[in-house]
Amino acid sequence: MSNVFANLKGDKVIWAVAALLAIFSFLPVYSASSNLAYLHGDGSTTGFLIMHFFHLLLGFCLLFAVHKIPYHYFRGISILLLPVVILLLIFTIAQGTTIDGAYASRWIRIPVLNVSFQSSTLASVVLMVYVARYLSKITEKKVTFKETIIPLWAPVFAVLILILPANFSTTAIIFVMTLILMFLGGYPIKYLSAIVGAGIVMLGIFVLTAKAFPGLLPNRVDTWSSRIETFFDGEEADEQYQVEKAKIAIAQGGITGTGIGKSVQRNFLPQSSSDFIYAIIVEEMGLIGAFGVMLAYLLLLFRIVIVATKASSIFGKLVVMGVGLPVVFQALINMGVAVELFPVTGQTLPLVSSGGTSIWMTCIALGIILSVSARREEIKEFENESLEGEEENPLDILSEAI
């Protein structure tokens, strides 16, 4: 066991938070998946727990493998993967709205493994690394908007446009995180303001086109636009039904909760093990569980900022913020949806909700962060060894003179 921990490089607190969230996730997933077991199985949750375990196992294998890669390699990897990601997004949106009778415009199925994969989640990680790479190149240069259109904005908007029809929430998160990363990277604010305005105009044109010609874009535009309208209008809808049940679950939780495995609202929430798992956590574990989970993500955010601050290069600082902030941001959105601070988004709770793609991409993002942190540790060890060598040199000289 000591050999295993010796091979874990990077920030130990991030390792601990990730491991604790993963271990903790079995409790709410076990409880929340019981209704799915009765609806789509034989009533046993064992299969769901085994699947969740293998998702986490593969995720932490990816985390371990990625954190062993020197982080500067991700600069080139992002350039190679970006065209692949764009092709995957095109394939995802072109495959139609259903596969075997099930809605699948956000998913592709891997033939050999026979598992579903959400390509937009991979696109998010790759794009943030790519943007960090480009910003690190121009950080000390005075750039014009024109010279950044092709190398920077063209890939960003290509990814956003391909994700938007099926998944507005992911598109919005990527767009906001990209803007924050560019702000942190020193990209001129006047250009960012122009991009925000252009983005709003393009979104408006897209929605109006989809509404005016319903058959032109066979996608989920009506779904996510109705969610936003319902949120602001307060009208009854399927999404509003889920939010009401989530709020009932939270209200029933109280301080200490109803007890693990004793949730009632899991029987009424269709996405109780994924999108609304936080409501089940609060119902069963009360405010203690609610604040415990929230503090875990805030601690993760704190350590991400620490790693970024101590990174030895501009690219290291930016890539940590680029892949780390979306993880915490997604967690806050998931918790906010449960208490109706945001419209229903379909965003999972990282490392806690069931679902393979979210877990795998979160682990890859944390692996990149830990790779940067590990490099900092190597530099610190080298500096300490150098100082020790300098301290020994006078003694060596004196002994030789004697």
Please give a structural write-up.
The protein has 402 residues and is mainly α. 72% of the residues lie in helices and 2% in strands. It has helices at residues 2-6, 12-32, 34-40, 46-67, 73-94, 119-138, 145-163, 168-184, 189-212, 221-233, 238-253, 277-310, 314-338, 356-401, and strands spanning 98-99, 102-103, 108-110, 115-117. The strands form two sheets. It has a two-stranded antiparallel ribbon. A two-stranded antiparallel sheet has the order 3-4.
Which key phrases capture this entry?
402 residues; mainly alpha; two-stranded antiparallel ribbon; globular; disordered C terminus
Break the fold down into its secondary structure elements and pairings.
Blueprint: H1 2-6, H2 12-32, H3 34-40, H4 46-67, H5 73-94, E1 98-99, E2 102-103, E3 108-110, E4 115-117, H6 119-138, H7 145-163, H8 168-184, H9 189-212, H10 221-233, H11 238-253, H12 277-310, H13 314-338, H14 356-401
Antiparallel strand pairs: 1-2, 3-4
Helix pairs in contact: 2-4, 2-12, 4-14, 5-6, 5-7, 6-7, 6-8, 6-13, 6-14, 7-8, 8-13, 11-12, 12-13, 12-14, 13-14
